[in-house]
Write a structure and sequence with these properties.
- The protein is mainly α.
- It contains six helices and no strands.
């Protein structure tokens, strides 16, 4: 039973590398903000706040689901901390690679929003057997 529960948690660290490839292509938030807002940066920051809220909610739900095993909770905490570090580094790198100086912040915000959404979808899909 514990092996079944450790598999989803061990996959947490692999998800960002799968998501990064599409983050520049799938910039729906950026396109929405360009079309519907006079201030694109403020719009993207608001979107990031929304994606962070959803991500935190999903994380907390998984954390509560595995409350019967403190080792699993510790593994989840560690994987989430490592995922956040990796997400931030990947988005920073993507902004440097693809963006001119003026565009780097927009690219980074778009990347953060995208990866937050992907992580939220993944956390929402995690099922454990109690």
């Amino acid at each position: 039973m514990k092996i079944q529960l450790l598999l989803p948690i061990s996959i947490f660290l692999l998800l960002p590398s799968l998501c990064l490839a599409g983050s520049k292509i799938n910039s729906k938030d950026s396109a929405y903000c360009e079309q519907n807002s006079s201030n694109i940066i403020d719009c993207l920051i608001k979107k990031q706040g929304d994606t962070k809220t959803a991500l935190n909610k999903a994380y907390n739900q998984v954390y509560k689901m595995i409350s019967y095993d403190s080792n699993l909770q510790k593994a989840l905490e560690k994987s989430q901390i490592e995922w956040v570090k990796l997400r931030n580094e990947q988005c920073s790198l993507e902004a440097e690679i693809y963006g001119r100086q003026a565009d780097q912040y927009l690219i980074e915000q778009t990347c953060l929003n995208y990866l937050n959404k992907q992580r939220t979808l993944y956390l929402n899909s995690v099922e454990t057997a109690n």
